[in-house]
Design goal:
The protein has a two-stranded antiparallel sheet. It has a domain of about 100 residues. It is α+β, with helices and mostly antiparallel strands. The protein contains 6 helices and 2 strands. The structure holds zinc ion (ZN) (2 copies).
Length: about 150
C-alpha cells in the first residue's frame, strides 16, 4: 500500500440509454455521366442479375435477419458510381494495390469487391449505410437493435 494514496471510488455502470443522432454536411461530387451512360453500369447490372436471387443482407447475415426490413438492394461498399471520378489513385492503392491506373479503378467500382447486398433498412433506412454514421453502422453489424 502506498502511503497517502486514496483509491478512486469504483465507477458506476452507465445504464442503458438512447441518444438521438443527426448529421449534416456537404458532399462535393465530381462531375459524372448519368448512371445509365456509365460504360461500367452494365457490370453492375450483370452482377445484380447474377446474384440477386441468392442475395442476403450483409448486416442481417451477421446480427440476424429479424433486424432486416424491405427488399434487397445492391450497395457500393467503398465508393459509389457518382464519386468514381474523384478517386485518388495513390489513396485507393493503399487498400487495393492491384489497381494500376484510373481505368482499372473505374472498372473496380462496379465489381464484387465494392458491392454489398443490403436490405432497405440497412441500406437507406434509419440503420442504413447511407444514413447512420460509419461508427454506428459498423457497430450495428454486431450489436443487436442498435439503431431504430
Ligand atoms: Zn438488413
Ligand atoms: Zn448504397
Amino acid at each position: 500500500m502506498i502511503v497517502g494514496f486514496i483509491p478512486p471510488p469504483p465507477m458506476a455502470e452507465t445504464p442503458a440509454h438512447d441518444q438521438t443522432e443527426a448529421h449534416r454536411y456537404v458532399v462535393h461530387y465530381p462531375s459524372h455521366l448519368p448512371r445509365e451512360e456509365d460504360p461500367h453500369y452494365k457490370a453492375f447490372e450483370a452482377y445484380h442479375r447474377a446474384t440477386e436471387k441468392t442475395a442476403k443482407c450483409w448486416v442481417g447475415n451477421r446480427i440476424g435477419f429479424d433486424s432486416c426490413a424491405g427488399g434487397i438492394e445492391l450497395h457500393h461498399a467503398f465508393v459509389e458510381f457518382s464519386l468514381a471520378n474523384g478517386i485518388d489513385l495513390k489513396a485507393i492503392q493503399i487498400d487495393f494495390p492491384d489497381l494500376q491506373d484510373n481505368d482499372a479503378v473505374q472498372k473496380w467500382v462496379e465489381t464484387d469487391q465494392n458491392f454489398r447486398w443490403l436490405c432497405v433498412f440497412h441500406h437507406r433506412g434509419h440503420a442504413g449505410a447511407h444514413t447512420a454514421s460509419h461508427a454506428d453502422w459498423t457497430a450495428g453489424l454486431y450489436v443487436k437493435a442498435l439503431i431504430s
